[in-house]
TrEMBL record, chain A:
Keywords: ATP-binding, Cell membrane, Membrane, Nucleotide-binding, Transport. This is ABC transporter ATP-binding protein. The keyword DNA-binding does not apply. The keyword DNA repair does not apply. It is found in: Cell inner membrane.
Length: 337, 338
């Protein structure tokens, strides 16, 4: 028997109660992360990427609730309560780096305190040992003079430095899985590249599994082994990176790839996916993408099942682009628009 | 103590406050902190001078103490003599100069009513008021923090709904009316608690309760709002993602950030009690403190005593404010010097 995946999510449903009623932000997501693997999660804004990751970390709070689904860590169930797993795994085995480094640190506690509290909690280190380890961690993420900097407050650091500190903090408990939710979006382009390099380097050095949530297909190509594409609270396609880029099966994935700037595209033409992401409280019946889909047909009004395409690929579509995509088929997609 | 020494002492105090900074920054930060404290002190001096000046002129406009101190049938000569003895026949400016000289040495002269140094009376009454305020407002502060936090943790929960309703009720009842209600209930109907004077520890319960309830209502609302704001911030989410205990997330991360508005209002509640609410409460419950003294001084047109009381309260208010500023700066070093 193969060993269980590091993290496994099965049929996760997360809902939010708003003034206008209850809506599901995540509508039955299943995914898994293998040891040592880097999984990319892509999808438009509002597709439920962050909510899914927050559910794993046990951060879903009223007005949100986990309605259904199982989460397993090394085969053991994660979820204890309606609001997510207890802190035993989250924070110790799984750590998360958030999008906005500027607001992610407590403005009134020194970065030293914010790192050592993790070491005290999960590593049982006492004051001096914790401080020593904290400055080691700061050095690891490329902060010079770490001993002195432990006494600084967050506002004394730049955005890029704060994201480095966030990464140091996430690594403090020596987690097996690092969830990075758009870790670079809030940063300058040059700083983005540095943070990406740092993440890649640390991942290789510490043998981390990583879930990378991003809008940046380039980043996915660079860092990830496998990709899950999310649309309107569902995973519409999963595939190994090479195969996904070579031959997307879901029309939405194809659209995403076409909307990505390419160096080899002499025309420099970008095609955005037509229309805008649907309102999660008012989704079309059946396949949520069908109102924007060039391949939509009548049967798309029924919920698509996820079909296994073999070699770890899956797609939830009635009319997938048959891989590998030949030129003729690509032309058909264009013609359909 | 020479000014240089005073500055040096303040400086070392500043250094101790600045302990959370790195050694390299500490000297610089301590100097900034020293300047900060000196600047606030200077503001305080100006406030105290301003308040006492206003009191001096206002008390001289509102009435004539001689009329009250002498029997109605006193002759004009007797009145003139009295006026002369009290120095009230001097030109206003000269009276003011004398007054300021007195203020500088904490000597306001003898109370017109009791014929002994006004400051002695104030210092004798002050501990009772301090006790009442400490017990009343102290209880309000200590209760408001857990209640406000629980309300903020479960918005629309039982505690939240109850505290909001009770707070609104508490805020809309005038304090004298509240005092009378408590007297009727606990003093007259149930007969559990004494309602007048300060002869036993039990005597403080009703006046402290009357003083505390409106403050408690205001404080709970502020703690609740401040905590709700903080609990929704990103850094709280991050702290929870680190697997920290709920106590650590709420008590260290969120509460520390909410502490500034809570502290500010707490300070204002103490000042508000000293500068006004104790007058009502001490009068209702015949609590022998400064508030009662003020009422008696006004009834007897005892300008000197009134000035001494107002001056003392102004000093206390300024002192509390200064302490608040320093604590505020210790909690949040980002607070500007200007
Ligand atoms: N606390 C909340 N209360 C109400 N609705 C929420 C809450 N958090 C998320 N949502 C809703 O859930 C849906 C999914 O949000 P999510 O943050 O997961 O999107 P995302 O895929 O991460 O998007 P982005 O790329 O912009 O980060 C959105 O419609 C969002 O409005
Ligand atoms: Mg997101």
């Amino acid at each position: 028997m193969t060993p269980p995946p590091l993290l496994e999510i099965e049929d996760l449903v997360v809902s939010f109660t708003t003034r206008r009623g209850v809506f599901e932000a995540v509508r039955g997501v299943s995914l898994h992360v293998e040891p040592g693997e880097t999984l990319g999660i892509v999808g438009e804004s509002g597709s439920g990427k962050s909510v899914t990751m927050q559910a794993v970390m046990g951060l879903i709070e009223a007005p949100g609730a986990i309605e259904r689904g199982a989460m397993r860590w090394n085969g053991e169930p994660l979820s204890g309560t309606r609001h997510g797993p207890r802190a035993a795994v989250a924070g110790r085995e799984i750590a998360m780096v958030f999008q906005d480094a500027m607001t992610s640190l407590n403005p009134l506690l020194t970065v030293g305190v914010q790192i050592t509290e993790v070491l005290r909690r999960h590593k049982g280190l006492k004051a001096a040992a914790a401080s020593a380890r904290a400055s080691e961690l700061l050095r690891l993420v490329g902060i010079t003079n770490p001993e002195g900097r432990l006494h600084y407050l967050p506002h004394q650091f730049s955005g890029g430095m704060r994201q480095r500190i966030m990464i140091a903090m996430a690594l403090a408990a020596e987690p097996a899985l690092l969830i990075a939710d758009e870790p670079t979006t809030a940063l300058d382009v040059t700083i983005q590249a540095q943070i990406v390099d740092l993440l890649a380097e640390l991942r290789d050095r510490l043998h981390l599994s990583v879930v990378l949530v991003t809008h940046d297909m380039g980043l996915v190509a660079e860092l990830c082994d496998r990709v899950a594409v999310m649309y309107a609270g569902r995973i519409v396609e999963t595939a190994p990176v090479q195969e996904l880029f070579a031959a997307p099966a879901h029309p939405y994935t194809a659209g995403l790839l076409r909307s990505m700037p390419r160096l080899d595209d002499s025309a420099g033409r970008l095609e955005a996916i037509e229309g805008s992401p649907p309102d999660p409280s008012d989704l079309p019946e059946g396949c949520a993408f069908r109102t924007r889909c060039p391949r939509a047909q009548e049967d798309c009004i029924h919920d698509p099942l996820t079909t296994d395409l073999g070699s770890g690929r899956g797609v939830a579509c009635w009319h997938p682009l048959a891989p590998p995509v030949a030129h003729g088929q690509e032309a058909r997609v264009h013609a359909g628009e | 103590m020479g000014p240089a020494l005073a500055q040096a002492r303040l400086h070392s105090f500043g250094s101790r406050l600045a302990l959370s900074w790195s050694p390299a920054q500490r000297g610089w930060q301590a100097k900034r902190l020293t300047n900060f404290i000196l600047q606030r002190l200077w503001h305080g001096v100006i406030v105290v001078l301003g308040v006492t000046t206003i009191v001096f002129f206002v008390t001289r406009v509102i009435g004539d103490p001689v009329q009250l101190m002498l029997p109605v049938e006193a002759t004009l000569e007797q009145r003139a003599l009295m006026r002369h003895q009290l120095g009230l026949d001097l030109p206003m400016l000269q009276q003011f100069v004398q007054f300021v000289r007195g203020v500088a040495t904490f000597d306001f002269g003898d109370s017109l009513w009791q014929r002994r140094p006004a400051m002695d009376i104030v210092l004798q009454r002050l501990p009772m008021t301090a006790l009442l305020t400490a017990v009343g407002i102290g209880a309000a502060i200590l209760l408001s923090i857990p209640l406000g936090i629980i309300a903020a943790l479960r918005p629309d929960g039982v505690v939240d709904r109850t505290t909001v309703v009770v707070s609104l009720a508490g805020l809309s009842i005038p304090q004298f009316w509240l005092g009378l209600l408590l007297i009727i209930l606990f003093g007259v109907k149930l007969g559990w608690l004494p309602t007048s004077g300060a002869r036993s520890p039990l005597h403080i319960v009703l006046p402290a309760l009357t003083l505390a309830l409106p403050s408690l209502a205001r404080l709970i609302m502020v703690v609740r709002t401040a905590m709700m704001d903080e609990l929704n911030r990103q850094y709280v989410k991050v702290a929870r993602s680190k697997g920290l205990s709920g106590l650590r997330v709420v008590g260290t991360h969120a509460l520390r950030n909410a502490a500034v508005p809570i502290l500010t209002l707490s300070g204002w509640e103490v000042i508000g009690a000293l500068a006004g609410n104790v007058v009502v409460v001490e009068t209702i419950f015949a609590w022998p403190g400064l508030g009662l003294t003020v009422v008696q001084a006004i009834e007897r047109q005892d300008l000197v005593l009134l000035q001494a009381v107002v001056f003392t309260v102004a000093i206390l208010a300024v002192g509390i404010n200064l302490a608040l500023d320093i604590i505020h700066k210790a909690i949040d070093p980002r607070v500007g010097i200007r």
